[in-house]
Amino acid sequence: MTIGTSPPNTAGTRMRRTSGGLASVLRLRELPVTLALIALVALTYLANPLFLGQQGMKDLLLNATIVIILAVGQAMVIITRNVDLSVGSILGIVAFSTGTLFVAVPGIPIVLIFLAGMALGALLGSVNGFLVTVAKVPSLVITLGTLYIYRGLNNAWAGGTQYFAGDRPDSFGALSVDTIAGFPLITLIAIIVVIIVAIFMASTRPGRDLYAIGSDPEAAKLFGIPVTRRVLLAFLSNGVLAGLAGVLYASRFNSVGATTGTGLEFDIIAAAVVGGVAIFGGSGTVVGAAIGALLLTTITSALTAIRVDKFWQQAIVGLLILAAIVIDRIARIRTAKKLRHSEARDV
Question: Does the keyword Cell membrane apply (predicted)?
Answer without folding.
Answer: yes
